[in-house]
Amino acid sequence: MIKSSIPLIIIFTLILVSSPIFGSGGPDYETVNFKGQKLSLKRDPLTRSPLIIRGVDSKLLEIRNFSKLSRKEITYTGPILVNKYKSLLQIASDQLKLKGAEKISDTWYVSYWQTFHGLIIYESSLGYAIDSSGCIKSLGALIYPNVKAPIASKVSHDEALKIGQSQIKDFKKLRCILLAESVLIYPVRKKNSIDFYRVYAFNFFPKEALHPASVVGGWAVFIDTQTAKKVLYEELLKPLGCCIPEDFVPPKPGELKPKWLN
Amino acid sequence: MVKLKFLMFIFIGLLVFPMAFSCEEKTGKSSLPKLGTSAIDFNCEDLKGRTWNLDKVRGKIVLLRFWADWCPYCRYEMPIIDKYYRILNKEGFLVLAVNVKQSAEVALAFTAQLDVTFPVPLDPDGKMARRYGVYAIPTNFLIDRQGIVQEILIGEVFRKEQVLKDLLQGYFSRRLGALEKSFPRRVA
């Protein structure tokens, strides 16, 4: 009995130890030949879209006369890149919306959201670095090739806002403020598929939280535009664009408009 | 029979073991650590599947950083931090850039876009950030070779590269001093 169980236990243990949760699952990169160009890819296990594309001994894109380009011209590189690798990325260049483009030292960092019928897909991204000679060697992306989501809302904004506010305990007592809102496509990753919700996204913060030195955070509440149901409720950390010096004395509430509000 | 029970005990232990692989802290603290005190221990796994805890990083100067990809201020500090990580890594400078409450896919795409090389542990439920008293991002803790918290920097402080350089100068003065002329300042 004991002897017969041992091999089974050993095999099962080996399977467990080699699973990704133990961190030895390997980097999961594959090498593909794309129109004669050797590329290294890491794919999203759910969508099979590339999370990372790297040129093997080659660049993804080389931009001529890069040093002469304006910031605006640099932001056009995303659509060019997407068109070049369209069959790999499986999205269209007109689905990109600029997230940011900034030069740090000699390198430009450019990033985009993916959109669906003009709406930003929550947490989607496609971005890359362009070195001083205009070369893009790799890109990182979290994109969704086949989005199936409603293209119109059934629930009104005001109704959704009321539902959103009702999710916050002591909303009035905390003097909560609606700091940001938008309509988004919210992908919910399940085991074998992704559900795409068209949502009203609300960010609420208590007035007290608006001061940079306050430790109070806020909440994100997403309400489904089709059913009026809450699909996300999450506590938010504050993004702080300014630093808080050690000798900082908090002024009276309402005296300052924090930088991160802009 | 006793042997079989013993083997089953080990087997169940192996099944339970992975639960320790999410970012988890070993103390019940919930406010910012005090300067000059021991850093709060943690146990987390990074994007490459490596596990990190205080014991593992002891002997290194650690910049423990909490960030999320939706925070624009977190974004543009990353290449600056990575630049110093590449220079000082072999001399004992370690950056642990903990992603708060996002998926591995989000963190992976983000770090690939910025081409950063330092480890990116995941804190999917925000537990580690809470235990460290993080209420805003980015928040950075500088932990010395003995595991003592020497600096806490809240907000976007490293956009001025000099701030990070000054911070590290005390620990890597010879290296940073020699490199001073080759450090280009950020171009607006």
Tell me about this structure.
The complex is a heterodimer of chains A (262) and B (188). Chain A has 262 residues and is an alpha+beta fold. Chain A has two domains: 24-142, 2-Layer Sandwich (TATA-Binding Protein); 157-238. Helix content of chain A is 16%, strand content 37%. Chain A contains five helices and 15 strands. Chain A has helices at 2-17, 71-74, 77-84, 86-89, 157-166; strands at residues 29-34, 37-43, 50-55, 61-62, 96-104, 107-116, 119-120, 125-130, 135-136, 138-142, 176-189, 194-206, 218-224, 230-236, 238-239. In chain A, the strands form three sheets. In chain A, strands 1, 2, 3, 5, 6, 7, 8 and 10 form an eight-stranded antiparallel β-sheet that branches. Chain A has a four-stranded antiparallel β-sheet with strand order 11-12-13-14, with helices on one face. The radius of gyration of chain A is 23 Å and the shape is globular. By secondary structure, chain B is of the alpha/beta class. Chain B has one domain: Glutaredoxin (3-Layer(aba) Sandwich), CATH 3.40.30.10. Helices cover 35% and strands 21% of the residues of chain B. Chain B has helices spanning 2-16, 54-57, 72-75, 78-88, 104-114, 127-131, 161-169, 173-179, and strands spanning 24-25, 42-45, 51-53, 61-67, 93-100, 122-123, 136-137, 139-143, 149-154. In chain B, a hairpin with a 5-residue loop joins strand 2 and strand 3 (51-53). Classes of the chains: A alpha+beta (262), B alpha/beta (188). At the A-B interface, helix 1, strand 5, strand 6, strand 8 and strand 10 of A face helix 1, helix 3, helix 4, helix 5 and strand 7 of B. Strand 15 of chain A pairs parallel with strand 7 of chain B, so a sheet runs across the interface.
Features:
heterodimer, A: 262 residues, alpha+beta, TATA-Binding Protein, 2 domains, eight-stranded antiparallel β-sheet, four-stranded antiparallel β-sheet, 37% strand, globular, disordered C terminus, B: 188 residues, alpha/beta, Glutaredoxin, three-stranded antiparallel β-sheet, 9 strands
